[in-house]
Amino acid sequence: MGKNSSSFSVVRFLTVLFAVLTGAFMLIGGIWLATIGGSWYYIIGGAAMLLTAFLLLRRNSAALVVYALLLLATLAWGVWEVGTDFWALAPRTDVLVIFGVWLVLPFVYRGFYQPGKGALGAMGVALVASAAVLTYSVFNDPQVVNGALPATADNAPQAQPLSNIADGDWPAYARDQQGTRFSPLKQINHDNVKELQVAWQFQTGDMKRPSDPGEITDEVTPIKIRDTLYLCTPHQILFALDAATGKQKWKFDPGLKTNPTFQHVTCRGVSYHEFPAAKDASNTQPALCSRRIYLPVNDGRLFALDAETGERCPAFGNNGELDLQHKQPVTTPGMYEPTSPPVITDTTIVMAGAVTDNFSTREPSGAIRGFDVNTGKLLWVFDPGAKDPNAIPADEHTFTMNSPNSWAPAVYDPKLDIVYLPMGVTTPDIWGGNRTPEQERYASSVLALNATTGKLVWSYQTVHHDLWDMDLPSQPTLADITDKDGNTVPVIYAPAKTGNIFVLDRRTGKTVVPAPETPVPQGAAKGDHVSATQPYSELTFRPKQNLTDKDMWGATMYDQLVCRVIFKRLRYEGPFTPPSEQGTLVFPGNLGMFEWGGISVDPHRQIAIANPMALPFVSKLIPRGPGNPEEPPKGATGGSGTETGIQPQYGVPYGVELNPFLSPFGLPCKQPAWGYVSAVDLKTNEVVWKQRIGTVRDSSPVPLPFKMGMPMLGGPVATAGKVFFIGATADNYLRAYSTDTGELLWQARLPAGGQATPMTYEVNGKQYVVIAAGGHGSFGTRLGDYVIAYALPDQK
């Protein structure tokens, strides 16, 4: 009897203590939230929870009735706020439902009272209602769009490709230099993709080094020519592999020496070129370097290597090496980083690169250069920040400091001889009061240059006076699309961080899909200004409504309440809310709704596969003062080594702190989904279907396979087999989906993060799908050094 009494005392004490603490937290937090304009629910809920605790303490069975009413009211409030969205309802109800179940356990309630049937019945109704609504919401996701793309007959006329590529090859970053990420192969198709299995696996041995910054990333998409696969590692070690077996043929190490001030250590890919003599299949002994691989290196070098042997091409630059730091105003390694493969024409290498974000007003130039494809001789320059962009500096001069840069892969139209570059913004990014008209002119624009001369053809600016780092982060895509009147229009699709996809006539830069100028919030920081309007494309994945505190989230009601309070304390008036000392919510966030992975376009069916994400950031301007000098410390060299946290922005009146908008538990404060896959009919520009992608398996302490829709880095690859492949998510999977409906058809567990865009090719009559699984340092996924190929099993 004594033991039972002691047990009941512990249960009673813990039960009442939980109710008191939860009620007090809700009441105090709710008062704070209500005083800054938020929901009053938490005051009412906290009071009801404290009343429940009081009645429990008095051993009054009315506690169950009060708590049942609290549960039902919370359920009704939750549905009123967010509808039947399970992941939005869960933090509003999870703790309360679990505690409700606890209260009706016999060993719990017998320690308090002998409740009547009415009290238990009330709790039963509340718990059953909660279970019913939550179960219904699991199977009726309001964020999902179900639909099917229109069918296309197998014998329908095929669009003429802009590049002549063998079906089984993948000779450029996006298969072609038009950025389509589409393969005509269909051996692997909708019906048999579930049978895919590992065909081979290769490990590069290139892992994070002690001298590396936090952001070491394996973002490579291999290229495949004939029977060989070419790929670079994060430290730009180039491997040539047998495409059928994955066995190494040769490797080349450029000897990159990193240090923690590098903002990135990454290589998205390499480029290929073959001279006319090499195209003759009967030529069994082509001259050295008649087939070449061009390798960009993060310390500002470009190598030309023989595709057969990996030997340097002696006629190119200095024994196969080109110094991209030549004429740069700042030559500190890591401040100028070519991270994406260059465009290669018959005569010209078009080279651009990244510069360190948010470090200083004295950084390298983002000058775009054209080099002779054979010798590496400089042919032309386009310096976006110069008064005369095409002027090549004299011997004693350099390119313009802090010119806008182009860090994502560019695309090329060989018929028009135009290269299209997605442009970034002049750094520092988050305050622009001292930018020159030249620095503003081409920032955050699509820039169209004649690939042979470097002369401007046209430009289109997607963000005016960019204060949010809303540059164009994705490789654009070129396609010929049939409009509503039956006319064929040569267009360029330019996905933006804002979620807009700008659709332009690639001959002129005129909008094909309207993008009207729209008023945006005003009120810049001291000494700065804000553009009155911004272009909003009508083909878009940007949020349809501004965020409110209803959209805040957490794993529980506790961190959701904290996120609501933080949200109400930030400055936020919708997209393009100016940066502030108060702290500004940036949504879409600095990572963007689109990143470097781009979209996949099937030019024959005229459809696109996209994988937008929705993850808010917070930017907070830090006025100069003690510990935040306007000039860098004497003797300091290199950048900040990171794109998040406190960024110095030397040379302007403010530093800035940039971080994802996270709860105290480290989870996004915005409710899921944070990532989708989606299909767009390009003839109508309508979203046909949209599905969440990714689970929290590798992001939570317990590996739960909950499909919430995860953030992504990497893009999709579609095929004629009506299936597309994507890694990218924060869980370690490669997935295959139906192009027509978005149905998940197959997935394979990866040994490390798959923050890379996959590719597919055919060799010896067999189709393979390949992805690099090496992880992403700042994304927090597991690091590795894997390259994995999948194929259908051999027919017996």
TrEMBL record:
Residues in the signal sequence: none
Residues spanning the membrane: 12-34, 40-57, 64-80, 86-108, 120-139
Family to which the UniProt record says this protein belongs: Belongs to the bacterial PQQ dehydrogenase family.
Organism in which the protein naturally occurs: Pantoea ananas (Erwinia uredovora)
Membrane topology: Multi-pass membrane protein
Single GO molecular function: quinone binding
NCBIfam families: PQQ_membr_DH (TIGR03074)
Enzyme superclass (EC): oxidoreductase
Subcellular locations according to the entry: Cell membrane
Name listed for the protein in its UniProt record: Quinoprotein glucose dehydrogenase
Keyword tags: Cell membrane, Membrane, Oxidoreductase, PQQ, Transmembrane, Transmembrane helix
PANTHER family: QUINOPROTEIN ALCOHOL DEHYDROGENASE (CYTOCHROME C), QUINOPROTEIN GLUCOSE DEHYDROGENASE
Main location: membrane
Ranges for domain Pyrrolo-quinoline quinone repeat: 170-769
Residue span of region Disordered: 621-646
InterPro entries on file: PQQ_b-propeller_rpt, PQQ_mDH, PQQ_rpt_dom, Quinoprotein_ADH-like_sf, Quinoprotein_DH_CS
